[in-house]
Amino acid sequence: MIRAAVRFIDQRSGTAPFIKKTLRYIFPDHWSFLLGEVALYCFMLLVATGVYLTFFFDDSVSQTTYHGPYKPLDGATMSHAYQSVLHISFSTKAGLLMRQTHHWAANVFVAAIALHLLRVFFTGAFRKPRDLTYLIGIGMLTLALLEGYLGYSLADDLLSGMGLAIGYSVAMSIPFVGANFATLIWGGPFPGSSSFWPRMFIAHVLIFPILIALLLTIHLVLVASRHHTQFKASKRETERQVVGVPAFPGQAPRSLGLMFAVFGVLFLLGGLVQINPIWLWGPYHVGDATNGAQPDWYLGWLIGALRLVPSWDFTVGSYTVVPNPFWGGVLFPTIVFGIVALWPFLERRVTGDVAFHNLLDRPRDNPWRTALGMALLTWVFLTFMAGSADRVDVLFGIPYSRQIWIYRVIVWVGPLVVGAIAKRVCEELLRGEQAHAVRRAAIAEARLIER
Amino acid sequence: MKAVFAGLLVLALLVPVAARAGSSPPHVGIVTGAGAHGNGLEELGASLFAANCSSCHGALGQGVAKPTRGAGGVVGQGPPLRNVGALAADFYLRTGYMPLKDPRVQPSRSRVLFTDRQIRALVAYVASLGHGPAIPQPQPQLGSIAAGQKLFTQSCAGCHQIATEGGYVTGARVPPLEDASARQIAQAVRIGPYVMPKFSSTQISATQLNDLIAYVQYAKHPDDRGGWSIGRLGPWPEGLVTWLIAIGALVCVCLLFGKRLRS
Amino acid sequence: MTKLKDWLVAGGVLLVGRRRRERRPERQRIVAAGAPNRRAENVLLLLFFGVTLAAAAFIAVYALDRLSNQTQWLGLALGGSFCLLAAACFVIAKHLVVSEELAEPYPERESPAAQGEVEQIVHESGSRFTRKRLVTLAGSGALGALGLAALVPAASLGPVLDTDSLYTTPWRKGRRLVDEAGKPFVAGDVREQTFYTAYPEGGDRELIGAPLVVVRLPLEEITEPRRSWAPHGIVAYSKICTHAGCAIALYRTPTFAPTQPRPALVCPCHYSTFDPADAGKVIFGPAGRALPQLPLLVDREGELRAAGNFSGPVGPSWWGVRMGKARS
Q: CA A285 to CA B150: how far, in whole Å?
């Protein structure tokens, strides 16, 4: 039966040799190599649940009065978009499950990419010939962040509406052209024209997913054609020879199992843990706000940055050259993404190492890279923590204003300290291994002499 | 270099300790005076007031404008209570906001040390100091949750958070409302304790107050049909669940399915 | 009787004989052989059965209207079935397929020969051109111009060249202040120690220039020269934060001034704090610009009206925010 199916396909496409090659394609074996796959499966689930949601969502921001099943909002003025999300949550069977799974998947998607990026960075997998693959990955990360932001803003609830106002202000803060750029995207001053919502909708359901899918395809093709990198675990793994598990039958049940596990975890979360209960937030209106409004976790570093920058619009005469949100909302992420994206080229330039690398470093094998990477991560992480300072004040009583001052200092000092510690730890670990090897050789020699 | 690191580490450890020391809740006790037994309510109230409140609020409730160091090193400073009425006294005492050890610290809900009789006595005494409002009798069962939701969003959510989980305003913590009784909500709205605005009946009528309380009571057990509500604070706990539960579980799955580096 | 049996046997042999599997020619194994594991197979069967049950449960829960906590049961059923399927795959991976560790060479780093041929093809194809550089330049210019032209319609997305609308607010002199319900504000009813949200009568409320936050302070606390903007000490400010556009929905007002922070308007997004007694100056937080104030007047009926437009453009800062006045 299998013979018949393969024959059918081969006669019509000529791909039997390709299929055979694919079946025995070698996957180097390490748990951390599976993180990218986790992101991939999250994306697949996002598309599947997302398609379902598009069948019910109304992308109109024109106002209506609610008289639906959720009584606490009876008589409230809201957009059709918000109302359609209420409808999905309350009146569509399995609608809330799909909505919540979709949102959890988005959060986990970006988290998985972040972990995958950390693995790729600290093992040097981005080195030639995989620097292009890496760059495409950074592109996907950027798109994922924006895509998530657009997605949760579509519901037009109080929290995400406040977030859109902030996004608009960040766009406005770009020197010289900010206002033109912001009014271009919004179709006018905030809250924008009536076509802004359909614009956001089509970006979220069509344009960004297509871009991500395109980049993802190229990314996977490049990974496959150059083959995956590997750790040097024994004499067999070399720069010229890859050792691992064949796709079939070895890797297939693992990858499939991981896929089902990702789906399982996300659907379990989607059913059991409430996320973004927009009916509790209420609809967005320009004159309303709530305390404790936060963006989704992957934009937390930006709210931290916005809160840390001191009160200062940089003006030259009557020209407001750099409005305040620019530093935290535009410059900070540009620098971070810039360093991350350009890293392979910077490292090549500084170390002079232009060779091909198929073997991975352990983090300790490259103390400078690990130290600088940890420093950058610390910079971002501490800024991210600053965004929770108000919650920390409420929970632990440490005054917010004092925390802000502390963060303003440690956000610069912390990376230096962590970087120095990381470098030292790597060097000590390497020295320890050398000493261990010398000791083993000495013991072996001693045994030889004894005989 | 090592000394600098050591110094930074010590600093890093000291700062939260110092911060904590400055803001820990005061440790209070109460004094029951000599006239605690067998007296009328107002006399009991007067003696309790003298023993527990007068150092900050003045012997006749006239207030203490400048910080004054009294017996036992207690620093007293507090607003006058002349016309605050039973409404305010009842609120502050039943929430445990008062007595407050340090006048510079924000009052917060704490264990009530007075007995019910003592509270009624103090309330009667404070009410007798002037012509303040009586203890309100709200009727949230007559209120509309939907109207309350709208009013809460406009007037309260900025500080108390839309799901009444509390929050922060520059210089003060805003309490969550899960422990607030209907009466206490009505009282707080009219008093505006600490830095909260004070809403009179011309701004929020008695009917609107019923709506507001109905909403706050609803928000204590709202519609959580999505599952475990994780605090109703939005993306903050959602991020924690993403990393601690979802990514934690999936990394474990990766560990199960992949092979560790054998080195 | 035996004749019938014979016919039956013959028929059976014919049928079975037809379906008899083709004998595979002897060939070398590609995939290594592995020992069977019946226990694992049994666990696998159990897991598959579990998946089936869970999937059926999902369908059942979906169909049951009256079941409460539908979302939780649906999630448990669907998530559970996927998790069981994942467990099944795990059992297969660990116990029911062979653990092979194979080696193969990494692909060629590059193919200089093919690279050379590509270059040669392109180079030889241009043999009929005499002025390659000029043609290339002209071609690039042409395509570039066309590309630019193709991008230009994107400007229709918004008023990209005209940012004048950013100065416009729905307020002008004489416009009456109304509350959420549309009721005008009577100056005498505006109390101290509380805050109000006001909108322009008849105007669009969803513009950032529309909402106001109105508070009353003792007249002597309001700094000059804005004292004339505050009849009876009533001040009105734009409710939209000048930092990042959130509504300033917090008002901090002390019950006892000596020990408590002074009155301030606070934004919940990044805690920009503005002083209503001092022309909306920023006293904490990242906002880089004072809160625009709307001058007020009290009309003959004792109601609050705008006495002009804001002290400056409303909302977040941009290049020209200090270059123009707020206008109607």
A: 11
Mutation target vs A (from C157, C161, C250; most A CBs, 10 A cutoff): C157
User: In the 8-state DSSP scheme, what is residue A206?
Assistant: I
Neighbours of chain A (3+ CB pairs under 8 A): B, C
The minimum CA-CA distance between B50 and chain A, rounded to whole Å, is 31
Spatial distance between the Cα atoms of C107 and C170, rounded to a whole number of angstroms:
68
CA distances for C88 relative to A30, A254, A432, C40, C49, angstroms: 21, 10, 42, 10, 10
Render pLDDT for A360-370 as a digit per residue (tens, 0 to 9): 999 999 999 99
- Please, which residues bridge with residue A359 across strands? A230
CATH fit for domain C167-306, picks 2.60.120.10, 3.30.470.20, 2.102.10.10, 3.40.50.300: 2.102.10.10
Yes or no: say if C286 and A307 are a contact pair by the CB < 8 Å rule.
yes
- Kindly write down the DSSP assignment for every residue of C21-38, as one continuous string: PPPPPP---SSPP----H
- Same domain as B157, residue B124: no
C touches which chains (3+ CB pairs under 8 A)?
Answer: A, B
Same domain, B144 and B97: no
Q: What is the mean pLDDT of each run of 10 residues along chain B (263 residues)?
A: 64 57 52 65 89 91 89 86 95 94 91 93 94 96 97 97 96 95 97 96 96 98 95 95 97 87 39
> Which residues touch A230 (CB under 8 Å, ≥6 apart)?
A28, A30, A237, A242, A243, A244, A358, A359, A360
CATH of the domain at B169: 1.10.760.10
DSSP H helices, A94-230, are 95-122, 131-153, 158-172, 178-186, 196-202, 208-226
By three-state DSSP, how is residue B105 classified? coil
Shortest alpha-carbon distance between residue B86 and chain C (Å): 17
Separation CA C85–CA A258 (nearest Å): 10
Prior bond to A129 cis, omega within 30? yes
CA distance, residue C24 to nearest chain A CA (Å): 12
Contact in structure between B228 and C72 (CB atoms under 8 Å) = no
Q: Strand C234-238 and strand C195-200: pairing? A: unpaired
Domain locations in chain C? Answer: 35-97, 167-306
Structure tokens belonging to residue A26: 């070698």
Q: B182 in a domain, yes or no?
A: yes
Cβ-Cβ contacts under 8 Å, B193 against chain C: 255
**pTM summary value:** 0.92
Per the document, the length of chain A is: 451
Query: Is B238 within a domain?
Result: no
Residue ranges of E strands in C253-302: 264-266, 273-275, 281-284, 293-294, 296-298
- Number of domains making up chain B: 2
Which ranges in chain C belong to alpha helices (H)? Answer: 2-19, 38-63, 70-91, 112-125, 132-151
What DSSP string runs through A8-75?
Answer: HHHHHH--HHHHHHHHT-EE---GGGGHHHHHHHHHHHHHHHHHHHHTT------EEE--SS-GGGTT
Is the ipTM above a cut-off of 0.85?
Answer: yes
Reported in sequence order, the residue ranges of A273-323 that DSSP labels E, i.e. its strands, are 314-316, 319-322
Residues 6+ apart with CB under 8 A from A350: none
- Alpha-carbon gap, residue A106 to C45, rounded angstroms: 33
B33 phi, psi to nearest 5 deg: -75, -175
Nearest to C252 among B170, B198, B256 (CB): B170
Kindly state whether residues B35 and B94 are assigned to the same domain: yes
Q: State phi, psi for A36 to the nearest 5 degrees.
A: -60, -35
Q: How far, in Å, CA of A390 to CA of B169, rounded? A: 9
Q: Give per-residue pLDDT as tens, A149-205.
A: 999 999 999 999 999 999 999 999 999 999 999 999 999 999 999 999 999 999 999
Sign of the alpha-carbon dihedral angle for C151, C155, C161, C166 = negative
The domain of B40 spans: 25-128
If you write DSSP's letter for every residue of A397-432 in order, what string do you get? Answer: ---HHHHHHHHHHHHHHHHHHHHHHHHHHHHHHHHH
